[in-house]
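Help: why these numbers?

___
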Amino acid sequence: MKPSGYSLDATFAALADPTRRAILARLANGEATVTELAAPFDMTQPAISKHLKVLERAGLITRGRAAQRRPRKLEPRPLAEATDWIERYRRIWEANFARLDAVLQQLKSKEKKTVDALLEDVKPKPKQRRSK
């Protein structure tokens, strides 16, 4: 049994590399062979294979079998788990920012009232006519 958080750690480690993210983006359009995945990159097929192994270990892709072909296919579950994890923190930060906005609005309102009161104090008073 894998320790808790293992798949999430592996997912984020795999996503840390731009080549692996590009491979996942390609696989989002459908399955592809190693040769097809390697085509847009200026690296050897063994280097691409190493990236694919990282993605497979993280559970982000699977290897199929169609006659002589060994197409890779995107597995959405680990990305969904990472998205859920990120979403929880996004909601926390949005709530924190909303509270900060409320505090800033209160401070601005208080500051405006203070400035208005000060201006009222220094505003010239209309001269009163003396009664004779």
Q: What stands out?
A: The helical segments are 6-15, 18-27, 34-38, 45-57, 76-122.
